[in-house]
Design a protein that fits this description.
mainly alpha
């Protein structure tokens, strides 16, 4: 079951990497970043395949670290790795369920799902931002 999730995460990161037209030499590495993020999320709570905020945050931190390190190694911008890497963690199903609850006139359910969706999206952004800020601070300190 976990291997299926990892394979889908890999493909789910390669597809947007192709869509944003990154170099062919970086495609494999972009897919690996998304797979590492999902692996981290699964390691935080192996019993839950529906990612929680803490799982997504941990995955985003790993993707951020991976992106910064690969940017240095491959001499490419970190966004080449971070953007495709976060796609498997994006709470698309939760967002869909939020809209569906609104359409079905279940306002309280839609509000709860909406808050969950925003919190998950925020945890992705905060995880990436935290790692990027630390790396920028370290670079400035070294210079």
């Amino acid at each position: 079951m976990i291997l299926k999730y990892l394979a889908l995460a890999f493909l789910g990161s390669i597809a947007p990497a192709i869509a944003i037209n990154i170099e062919k030499r970086l495609l494999l590495w972009a897919g690996l970043g998304g797979m590492l993020g999902v692996l981290t999320a699964l390691l935080v709570d192996p019993s839950s395949f529906s990612f929680s905020i803490s799982q997504i945050f941990a995955g985003a931190i790993v993707i951020g670290l991976y992106s910064e390190l690969m940017a240095k190694i491959m001499k490419a911008p970190s966004t080449v790795f971070v953007i495709p890497g976060i796609f498997p963690l994006v709470p698309g199903i939760t967002a869909y369920k939020t809209i569906q609850a609104f359409v079905d006139n279940e306002v309280s359910e839609a509000a709860l799902l909406g808050i969950d969706t925003v919190a998950k999206a925020f945890s992705i952004a905060f995880g990436i931002m935290l790692v990027t800020a630390i790396f920028r601070f370290a670079r400035r300190r070294r210079a």
